Amino acid sequence: MEFFDINVLREQYGYLAIGAIYTLGLTSLSMLFGISIGIIISQGRMTKNIFIRSISSVYVDVMRGIPLLILLIWFFYGLPMLIDYSFSPLFAGVACLSLKYSGYLAETFRAGIQAIEKGQSEASFSLGFSKLQNLRRIVIPQAFRIVIPPIGNSFVSMLQDSSMVMIVGIWELMKRGNSLANSTLKPFEIYTAVGAFYLIMAISASRINRYLERRLKLVR
Amino acid sequence: MTDAFLAGILMTLKVSALSMLLAIAIGLPLAFLRMSKRFIPREAGVIYIEISRGIPILVLIFWVYYGIPIITGFAMSGFISGVVAMTLKYAGYLAEIFRAGIEAIKTGQKEAAFSLGFSKAQTMRRIVLPQAFRIIIPPTGSAFVGALQDSALVSIIGVNDLMRQAQLAVAYLYRPFEVYTAVAVLYLAMTISFTKINDYIERKKMVIE
Amino acid sequence: MTEGKIEVPMIKVEDLYKSFGDLEVLKGIDMEVKKGEVICIIGASGSGKSTFLKCLNYLEEPDSGNIYIDGELMGRRKRRDGKMVKAHAKDVYRMRAEMGMVFQLFNLWPHRSVLENVTEALITVRKIKKSNAIKTAEHFLDKVGLIDKMDEKPAFLSGGQQQRVAIARALAMRPKIMMFDEATSALDPQLVGEVLEVMEELAKEGMTMVVVTHEMGFARHVGDRVVFIDEGVIEEENTPEGIFTNSKNPRTKEFLSKVLHA
């Protein structure tokens, strides 16, 4: 038996590549939702209202503590039993990725906003700014620069965790690899290729992230 | 039934803890490799770390469990494959944590030690590592919590961890919502308690300093 | 009935109390500041001076007591049923805009240029057109002597320059009152003078000022009244001569001897 059958890869390269594109799209969409939810939750974490603050804290603890696999299976196989409604695999996949990462992103946003010294907001308030005006004009423009690198890292993480959504039947890169490995009986070659695809995506995303980080530092 | 779940929890803890210990054992030398002044060891470290941080753990698990046996003719159990995959992945992750911790100890302290006649090894052992240790505890704790969550994936290759017990229970009871909710709560109990303990240790260490 | 109308004090503080957790910082402060007066507040660190200042514009919320700015109650309002409740946020913002504050650490916004720091509030709070805001900003930057730095970012200015920009930023809103929270304490000694000069100029022009300071020379020379706060209460209040030369109060004398021999 050959050590490494490169031919099977030559044939199936395109099939996997499309899966990679699905993975990218899936991850990007989930990041957008995750960021939106994360911003809201981070506000909840910083509010004066104890009730809202506690709920937000619990949300963050749960999302950061629950295995994505169980969230996916619970959402796709368990929840429908309770509410008598089935979700499409795509919906379930995006929802679970978004929810899980919204927990991490909420903490990222909170840290970013709190990193802006209190004094600057005091100056704004002393001039008559409203809380919203201060956020929009003073805090967020600066917090934005701090927050971009961690968001980039979350994106890279999510790219990899997205492999788990194969379990609910989305035909992204991992599921295609799995199906191919079973049909061609060449798991070593196939999973090596799958790994390579993920690696290329992860490294590219990291490079872009580091570039952004440097660009943002210069503008200051 | 509770026996089964307890066995599952135990297996989850076993897989996570074993992987973490092995990852630490590999990660520390890897960190030093990464910090080496010589090109080859350093680049080798960089390459390993970049690869391990770019490949999903699920891919690693399948690659080890399905792929390696085909080319080596040597089959490994789900447990061993899972531990190997997790170790390989987390070693890179931890290596970066260790590196950051060690590099955080300011050169001034090392210079003071050298000026007093310490060797490099003595400086590392008596001055740098004891302090770096305190810095790396919290992120390592977080990594363990991550490992606990990733360990659920080994259920896919047949390891009888908590996740697999859940699926067996569902097949038996036909109540997916209740079972999966209960198992989710069990996982959360583990991860949240470890996280709180980790936070507590972090706070206590800050007070000591 | 009387010859002139009774003039409402610019600032009136009644029985102000403020605690942070268990720590009681202000223990019943009463004060009146007339229009055009320059009040200098002196005292040891931790005596409550900064907290007092921040209560005036409600950056800190007092636990009890009343604060009237130009006759208007600050931070609270009387509901129709007579109960005292928190003021509407926009009233607080409006009143704050009429009061200028200069901070010990300048608190300029690093991502904005000097000019933008001064125009920002005019545009965002007063909703003034950008071109008019720039004209106003340039006027006040010129007044503090920094017109040539207007396109620089604050990080490139010295401490004294940054503080003068901060003063211009506050003045551009044309406030009724200017408050200075240890405005020169964070400056190198040779930079203190340029800032005190600007403050003295303001005083001469008739601005109502409340100045928390360690600069006893300034308090003596420019202040109309000096207030010594110790451990959350006003220990003594008098003219500069009354405090610095003729004080009979032992605590005042102890504080002054420590500070003036430093």
Helix content of chain C: 25-40%
- The DSSP helix count of chain C reads 9
Got a strand count of chain C?
12
Provide the CATH superfamily of chain B: MetI-like
Could you give a short account of the major beta sheet of chain B?
none
Principal-axis shape of chain B equals flat
Rg of chain B, rounded, reads: 20 Å
Distance between the termini of chain C: 53 Å
Largest sheet: spatial strand order of chain C: 8-9-10-3-11-12
Number of strands of chain B: 0
Number of domains of chain B: 1
Q: How much strand of chain B?
A: under 5%
Structural class of chain C: alpha/beta
What does this structure look like?
The complex is a heterotrimer of chains A (220), B (209) and C (262). Chain A is built from 8 helices and no strands. With 220 residues, chain A is mostly helical. Chain A has a single domain, classed as Orthogonal Bundle (MetI-like fold), CATH 1.10.3720. The longest helix of chain A has 41 residues. Chain A is flat and about 70 Å long. Chain B has one domain: MetI-like fold, CATH 1.10.3720. The model of chain B has no long low-confidence stretch (mean pLDDT 90). The N and C termini of chain B lie far apart (47 Å). Chain B has 209 residues and is mainly alpha-helical. Chain C is built from 9 helices and 12 strands. In chain C, strands 8-9-10-3-11-12 form a 6-stranded mixed beta sheet, with helices on both faces. A 4-stranded antiparallel beta sheet of chain C has the order 2-1-4-5, covered by helices on one side. Chain C has a two-stranded antiparallel ribbon with strand order 6-7. In chain C, α6 links the parallel β9 and β10. Chains A and C meet through α5 and α6 of A and α2, β8, α3 and α5 of C.
List keywords for this structure.
heterotrimer; B: 209 residues; mainly alpha; MetI-like fold; 85% helix; flat; C: 262 residues; alpha/beta; 6-stranded mixed sheet; 4-stranded antiparallel sheet; 9 helices; 12 strands; globular
Set out the fold topology.
The complex is a heterotrimer of chains A (220), B (209) and C (262).
Chain A: H1 6-46, H2 50-65, H3 68-83, H4 89-114, H5 118-126, H6 131-161, H7 173-184, H8 187-219
Helix pairs in contact in A: 1-2, 1-4, 1-6, 1-7, 1-8, 2-4, 3-4, 4-6, 5-6, 6-8, 7-8
Chain B: H1 2-34, H2 39-54, H3 57-72, H4 78-104, H5 107-115, H6 120-150, H7 162-173, H8 176-208
Helix pairs in contact in B: 1-2, 1-4, 1-6, 1-7, 2-4, 3-4, 4-6, 5-6, 6-8, 7-8
Chain C: E1 11-20, E2 23-33, E3 38-42, H1 49-56, E4 64-69, E5 72-73, E6 76-78, E7 84-86, H2 89-97, E8 99-102, H3 114-124, H4 130-143, H5 159-171, E9 177-181, H6 189-204, E10 208-212, H7 216-222, E11 225-230, E12 233-238, H8 240-244, H9 250-260
Parallel strand pairs in C: 3-10, 3-11, 8-9, 9-10
Antiparallel strand pairs in C: 1-2, 1-4, 4-5, 6-7, 11-12
Helix pairs in contact in C: 3-4, 3-5, 4-5, 5-6
